[in-house]
Amino acid sequence: VKPAVTAVAINRHIAKVGLVGVPDAPGVAALLFSRLSQRGINVDLVFQALSHDHLNDIAFTVEDKDAAAAEEVARACLPDVNGRDVVVDRSVAKVSAVGSGMLGRPGVAAGVFQALAGAGINIQMIGTSEVKISCIVARDKAEHALRRIHQAFLLDEGQAVIED
Amino acid sequence: VKPAVTAVAINRHIAKVGLVGVPDAPGVAALLFSRLSQRGINVDLVFQALSHDHLNDIAFTVEDKDAAAAEEVARACLPDVNGRDVVVDRSVAKVSAVGSGMLGRPGVAAGVFQALAGAGINIQMIGTSEVKISCIVARDKAEHALRRIHQAFLLDEGQAVIED
Ligand SMILES: C[C@@H](O)[C@H](N)C(=O)O
Ligand SMILES: C[C@@H](O)[C@H](N)C(=O)O
After folding, report:
1. Rounded CA gap, B20 and B59, in Å?
2. Distance separating alpha carbons of residues B106 and B102, to the nearest angstrom
3. Which of A17, A67, A95, B36 is the most exposed place for a label (fewest CB within 10 A)?
4. How far is the CA of A73 from the centre of ligand 2 (A)?
C-alpha cells in the first residue's frame, strides 16, 4: 500500500493577508487578484470558505518580501469592493503534507490535523488538493509541526523539508 | 511560453458541508475529519480561511452520495466542539482550472476569477494549489463557467472536461 504522506515541508517566509467582510458577489475576487497581479505580486495560496449574510473573507499568502505591497493593494481595494477591513499576519508559516490521492483516502487529513492538535498547534487556515494538505500555523510552531507530521507518518530524514 | 491554464474541469456531483462558528483552537479540525474518516467518507477539498473572535468555519466538499452521512457527522460533532451550526448545499459544483506553476504566475488566478465574474457567476469558495485553482459555484452555473474559462484561456475541445 502506497504511503499516504510521502513528504512534509514548511515555508516560514510567507505572510497572510486577508480582505475581510467583502460582498459575496461576482467580481470581488477578480478585482483583488487583478490588482495584485498588476503589481507583480505572486500569490502563493488563496483561502475562501463560507459566506454569511452575503459577506465573505478572501485570504491569501504571499512571500514575506511582497507582504507590504500586498497589504497596500488589499487596502486600496477596500473602498472599491465595499469591504470592511484588511488583516495581515507576517508571523505565519505554511506546513504542507504531500502525498498521492490523499483526499480520496479518508484519514490522511485527520492524521495531519491530529499530529498538529496533539502538540497544541492551532491550524489558522487550511487548503488542500489531491496531493497536498497545507496548514497555515504560527511561524514559531512550524518546526514542531514538521516534526509531528514526520513522526506521525513515519517519514525519513529526506522527507521532512524546510523549504524556506 | 508554457500556457498558464492547460485544462478546465467541472464536477457537478459534489456537495458543500460546513461547520460554522467553531472554536479556533487545536483539535477541532482533527475531531471533525477523524469522525468523517471513521465513517468512510471521502473528503474532496477542505476550505478554512480567517478566524474572527477566536471562531472559524471549516467547510469541505464530498461526493453527492456521501452528503447525507457527512451532514450527520458534522451535526454530531457540533456539541463536542462547541460549534454553532452546520450548513449544507447540495446544489454546488467545482470548477477547476489546471495549469503549471499557476500561482507563481500573477494574473492566472485573476484571469480565472474574471472569466467567472464577467458572466455574473458568484465564486462561493476558493481553493488553490500550484497546479490547480478550484472554485465552488452554483451547480446551474457550472457549464457556463466551463465555457467562460475555456474561452478566456483559448483552450481546445479536449481541454474542457465535464468530470461528473
Ligand atoms: C467573495 C468573492 O469571492 C465573490 N464571491 C466573488 O465571486 O468574487
Ligand atoms: C478551526 C480549526 O481548524 C482549529 N483552528 C484547529 O486547529 O483545529
Report:
1. 8
2. 8
3. A67
4. 28
